Every structure is written in C-alpha cells, then in structure tokens.
C-alpha cells in the first residue's frame, strides 16, 4: 500500500508506480497535452492497479465521444473486479454508473467519496467536470464549499482547487469571490489554464472586455503545454473582440487560434466537443452580424455528418445542426435529429436531457437554418427554462438564446423576444443593449 500526493492510501505495486500515478493526476488537473503519455507511463508500471482501470475509463469518458464508450465500459468492469480500498471501489462504482448514463449516481458517489476524503483530487475534479456538463453550477459550488475547510496551500493540487472554486462561483454569480480565487491560483501557477479561464468568465459576465483581452493576451505564452483548453481560452478572447466589433480580430483568432487546423494539437482532436462548440457558436454569431465567414462552416459540417448518431455531448448537438444547416445539408441534419430522438428514448441522465432540452434545441437550430423562424420559436420555447442542463457556461449557452431571439424577431414575435431579453437581463449584470449579441434586437423591443 502506498499513498498519493495528498496522503491518501492507493493500492499500487511500487513507489515508482505511485509517482507515476501522481504525475498522471497532476497532468489531468493541469489540462496538459502530455496527460495521455503520463497515463500510459502509469499503466505500464502497474496495469492491474484499481486506479489504472479507473483512470483509463475516466479519461475515455471525458471525451464525450461514443467511440470511446466500449473502452470506458471495459475499464469500468476491470475496475469493479480489481477491488482495492473502499475509496477505490467507490471510484470504480462511480465510473461504472457514468458509463451506464447514470451521471446522477456518479455524482452522488463522488460526493460520498469527498465526504470521507475531501482532499481526493480525482473525485473532486471529475465531480466538477460532470456537474458542469449537466449545467449544475450550484452543485459545483456546493462541492467547493463542503471541501473548503480541508484544502490549503500545503496540498499539491491547491491551485487547481482554487481554479475550480473560481469557475464554480462564477457560474452561480459570486463574481468577486470567483475572481479572487482565480487570480490567486494564477499568481501561484501562471500556467493554470482553468484559473485563467474562470477569471475570463468573470470578466465576460461583467462586461470588462478590454480587461479580458489584456488578461488572456498576457497569459497566452504560458499555455504551450496545455491541451485543447487553450483553444477555448482563445475563443474567450475572440468573444471580447466580438463585443468590441472587431470582427477581423475574431476571424484571425478563429483561423490561427481556436480553429487552427494546421496545428498538430487540432489535427489530433479535430472534432473534440469543446472545439466544435467554440467554432460553430462563433460562426453563428458572426453570421447574424452579417459577417461573411467564407467556407469555414464546411469542415465543421463534414465532421458533423461523420458524427451522426453520437449523442454523448448534448450541448454539442445543436452546434452540429448549425453547421449542417449553414451548408444546406438539411437531409443530414434531419438524420441527426432522428438520432437525437432515438437517444432520448432511454432512461439515463443524458437521455432525459436529450428529450427535455436537446431535441428542442436541435429542432430550433434546423428551423432557423431553413428560415422557419416561427417554427424555431415554437420548438425551443418549451425548453427555455431547462436549456442549462445541456451543459456549457452562461457564455456558451448565450448562442442558443441568440438563436431564439433572432428567430422571434424575424417571425415578428415581439412578446417572445421580450421574454428572452428579460431572461438575459436577469442573469447577467450587463444589460442586453450593452452586449453585441443582443444589442440590435434590444434596441427594437422594449423589455
């Protein structure tokens, strides 16, 4: 028996394997490109360890790709069979639940682990990730609050915990506390991309666009070892430029930053769910501003067509529909909707979300692309109050609100447009008339 970086017992064959385990966890917590290599090194040293199967399966699930499910399920079975400490068995059970589309159960198990082992970095970070992609900001923040008395600067992953505190608190509107935690984490570890990301969200929500550009531009040299999260950070910078009306900068960041198809990193993950969301949502915003985006939609539509039938990432699905619709591939988009409807027939967490929110959002995206604006409003209206469960931050979710608002305005449905603007005004301290994505429509509707 050995211990991890936080002193928790781990069933491992050697001290060398323990070091390799810690290195894999550290790389994952830091969003580093070399995380797969660190995992591979750990697996080579102790392939039969309970955490070997747990990490392999968890990392497969993090991709939100149906192609990774068989591997994740195999790993879950191996983890369950491996036994180990009660904590390791609980991790195996959480992974098993996650692979069976029971994310609610997985979250509950991680919370039980944290109740007994509040400094379990893996349980904390996986809980943070899954809760976020279910749109559960309060659940993220609650995990931070419950574990706070047990975390401090003496722990190896303290900056990562601060980064999660930052983002969780931002998503529930506690902006001052969020910014303090994020800046503290970056002061400790300038390469902490999740902390940089959390502060960028605070600046976005508060309309501090010039600060946002300066913040991200100054930190960008620190991201050389980061994985595709750096694309998302560049998307955030593009959002700030978008709000300034600088579409040339936005397109430049698209081509040479967050959708840089010449980059080896992008080539390795051409249809990673967050990368797709970055690209499609920005092209959609630009299109509504009348900006000619050239043929940039085509490669996204090609990838969307290849992923028809994969419904693992509920929030990505309407972005795929946007790409197919923008390129006139309406038949393919209809097939994607059929696949979403099929996925919604299950009883798991994601299936329920697809039925309640994912399918309406996808239908609305297709109607909008066809110019059927009243139909788009009708399709999305029932899901407006639940769309957050698709996952994504407030900044990311705004593209779906914009789709609804644009459809309502073009359909002459002033009451529906007003309701959306009131919704946006209630959530964000920056009024819609000061936000580029809403400004044009806000000037035409009293709300």
From TrEMBL:
Record field: transmembrane: none
Could you tell me which InterPro entries the record lists for this protein?
TPR-like_helical_dom_sf (IPR011990), TTC38 (IPR033891)
Q: State whether keyword Repeat applies.
A: yes
Cleavable signal peptide: none
| UniProt KW keywords | Repeat, TPR repeat
Entries under Gene3D superfamilies matching the protein: Tetratricopeptide repeat domain
Q: Which family does it belong to?
A: Belongs to the TTC38 family.
Give the PANTHER family listed for this entry.
TETRATRICOPEPTIDE REPEAT PROTEIN 38
**Name of the featured protein:** Tetratricopeptide repeat protein 38
